[in-house]
Amino acid sequence: MHPKYRPDIDGLRAVAVASVLAYHAFPDALPGGFIGVDIFFVISGFLITTIIMQSHAASDFSYSDFYARRIRRIFPALTLVLATALALGWYVLLPREFSELGKQAAGGMAFVANFIFWGESGYFDTIAETKPLLHLWSLGIEEQFYIFWPLLLGFAWRMRWPIVRMLWVLAAVSFVANVLMVHPYREAAFYSPGSRFWELMVGGILACMRLKPPTPSAWRSHAQSVLGVGLIVYGLVSIRAYKAFPGWWALLPTLGAVSCIAAGPNGLLNRYVLSNRVMVWIGLISYPLYLWHWPLLVYARIVEQGTPSAGVRVAAVVASVVLAWGTYRFVERYTRAKTGVGMLRALLGAGVVVAVVGLLAFGGMSPRNGGEMLRMVSDATVDGGYYDDVPREKLGSRFVNRVGNGRGQVLLIGDSHTQQYGPRAAELARTSPERMATAVFSTYGACPPIPGLIAEGNPDCERQRNRMLELARDPRFDTVVVGACWNCYFTGNFPLDFEFRDGVSSYPVNNGGPGIGRSLDALQALLTDLVHRKKKVYLLLDNPSGPAFEPLRLIEGSRLGTMTASRSTPTAALPPAEAQLNERLLRIAEASGAEPVDVIAQLCKAGECLRAMPDGNPIYKDKEHLRPYYTRQNASYVDKLFLGDGHGGPSPAGR
Predict the structure, then answer these.
(1) Which residues lie across from 453 on neighbouring strands?
(2) CA torsion 465→430→384→570, rounded to 10°?
(3) What share of the chain is helix, strand, coil (3-state, %, to 5)?
(4) What gap in Å lies between CA 107 and CA 126, rounded to an integer?
(5) Which of 201, 542, 575, 590 is close enough to 171 for a disulfide, judged by CB 3.0 to 4.6 Å?
(6) Is 533 helix (H, G, I), strand (E, B) or coil?
(7) Three-class secondary structure of residue 395 per DSSP
(8) How far is 506 from 454, CA to CA, in rounded Å?
């Protein structure tokens, strides 16, 4: 059984998908547009629960029929989009990129994409804008919900349990898990079904409460309609991607969607806005539109090798609307009309074929541009296992990464530019165990080890930095290494906005702001304090960085034409701003009594800096980070941090 058709719910779908499209195409125009997915979750929970409970009430619910309907609803558009994405990927992607696409396609077809992207997430993960099937994470959560939800409702119905009260408890548990996880385990809170199911459950609770429709009240419907739309609009303009989302923020789109649905078709805005013919039409094609838009935007970015122009993005959105209409009109409506078992088998068979092709791509199937040099360059972009051989363990109440068992106790603090030397420490522990100190890494991505320097988009940085600095002052460590992506914070080579806070005022750091000088003064004060604590202190300076060091810059040609990897340009120019900052940091080290480790002096000569080995193999993972491949065997300039002679005593200025 299906619930009575409500055009306003299709209108609400239109709000959800239009918000997501606007955010993905023009994120600055609608910064909270990604909450459209949460609106979809509520709608799905409401409709699916209504279907299940009405069928139980009529004593005609069938699990096989329920899942057959799900296949007819989900598979036609999904298999078409995945097949197209794989074909485009074979034509324009590099070997490693095509392999990753194959994994995503197989996972999307198996409805476990959220687990795949959860496993890939992290500071060194490939940026979201280059993953053509990233948006399938939400479909995975919905389909996982559809597996356990009918079984739970069916069992509760047979046992005559108080269903609404039981569902409130389950939703509350899921919501609490979401709130508790969002700060320490943000990726888990975002991708885990356990911390997302509450949004679908809230829609399901409303469906159960509406099995016996309430007494009509026009004013209540109008109020619920206005409140629901208001909450959604407020969420769209106030929520930001860098905030702790989902967390408490997810209540805005979730309760807004619930309020809109509860208002019924005659609520003020439901009747005159959401039930508008244009809104309903967009709602009808919302599912294929959601599937098509993201791959088109991502492939446009890949072909353009950066953010596409506004015109290209508008064209991608228009193309996704046209493709969504065509998919709805000629594919979805056709397959739904064929209710026989033959169509069901054909859809399942198509899904299996897509999954198998995805697995073949993941297993090594070569794309069109699949030469050995291209494979070597593309492999560099995923070479990020800096702590693979540096085990994680607990030190007191903190987690750190430790390698070596020597007498000297060396602590390395900072961000990923300190972490990138983990492979070198592990290599020294393997080849020179008798000289190797005990090296402890306490790092956190995009978190400068300078008190008071804050990034709005990295909310857990201050807590993590306080832990680093507490360890740095711990008497058990006789040597402290302070390193970071100084170029990121002080030359503008980073997407986050930083400011320095002294407890009274805030000073911007980006674009040459006054916070730079105050931040560097705070760094010098930190180094001086550590030296006065009778520690050997090193200031680990930064490696060259910038777009020219990106591995893919070694590739010549066009994504739509022929691509080749060049061995003729193994160096790139050192940006002048980075050279000036390096000199300033050298003076800070001298003034504080810390010993500098000048990485630029090792990697650069006459203003030209190494970016690839003689055989053309890149030494960088991206435009900022040196690869484990390189640091493991070649970063001998940091050996003095780990090998015996430099440990066990203070810096000269601290004696």
Answers:
(1) 500
(2) 110
(3) 60, 10, 30
(4) 17
(5) 201
(6) coil
(7) strand
(8) 10
pLDDT, tens only, 103-131: 999 999 999 999 999 988 766 556 778 89
- CA 574/CA 604 separation, integer angstroms: 8
The two three-digit tokens of residue 334, written as one number? 């056709």
571 CB contacts (<8 Å, ≥6 apart)? Answer: 608, 609, 610, 611
- Tokens standing for 105? 């396609």
pTM: 0.88
Beta strands in 432-497 (DSSP E): 438-443, 453-455, 479-483
* 426 burial via Cβ count (<10 Å: 0-12, 13-18, 19+): buried
Maximum pairwise Cα distance, the chain: 86
- First-to-last CA distance in the chain? 83
Q: Are 222 and 262 in contact (CB under 8 A)?
A: no
Q: Which pLDDT does position 211 carry in this prediction?
A: 81
Nearest to 197, CA basis, from 387, 41, 372, 32: 41
Each residue's pLDDT tens digit, 557-608: 999 999 998 888 899 999 999 999 999 999 999 999 999 999 999 999 999 9
Closest C-alpha among 195, 175, 200 to residue 185:
195
- Would you say 612 and 555 are in contact if contact means Cβ atoms under 8 Å apart? no
pLDDT digits (tens, 9 = 90+) for 194-251: 999 999 999 999 999 988 777 778 999 999 999 999 999 999 999 988 788 999 999 9
Q: How far apart are CA 124 and CA 102, in angstroms?
A: 20
Closest by CA position to 398, among listed 459, 339, 337, 476: 476
Helices 36-57 and 136-159: angle between axes, nearest 10 degrees: 30
Residue type, 510: N
Cα(512)–Cα(543) distance, rounded to whole angstroms?
20
Q: Compute the distance between CA of residue 516 and CA of residue 511 in angstroms, rounded to an integer.
A: 9
Residue with tokens 């100190």: 437
- Closest alpha carbon to 442 in 475, 407, 477: 477
Tell me the residue type at 26. Answer: F
Bridge partners of residue 392, in order along the sequence: 401
A 10 A CB-CB count for 647 gives 20
